[in-house]
Structures are given as structure tokens and as C-alpha cells.
Amino acid sequence: MISNKMAFRLKSNWDLKKAKLKARFPKLTEDDLDFDETEMKEMLAKLEFKLAITSKELQLIIETL
For the whole model, what pTM was predicted? Predict the structure, then answer.
């Protein structure tokens, strides 16, 4: 589950995090990383599936970028 704190951090510096995610995981596309606040949970679920990782793993990756 995504916290409000994480949602704010994602929104505030998403372009930087998106670039770092694309560099770390080249199979991610612009569509995979298209940030829309109303569909954030769906985007994160898609990333978890595509990268075959848990939500906690994805959260840790995003927070450490």
C-alpha cells in the first residue's frame, strides 16, 4: 500500500526518479512510467508485475533512487 508521504515524494520529483528507473530497468517504457496521480496505484501495480517484484521491493527501490 502506498502511503501519502510516498505519493507526495513521487509527485514532487517523478521526472528524476523516472529517468533513474529507466536507466536501472531498461525494459521499462514511457507508458510504464507515465505518472497520473489518479492512477498511481495502477501504475505501481504494473511496475511490480513487469519487474516481478513486490510492492515493498518497489517502494524501497523508488525511495533509494
Answer: 0.82
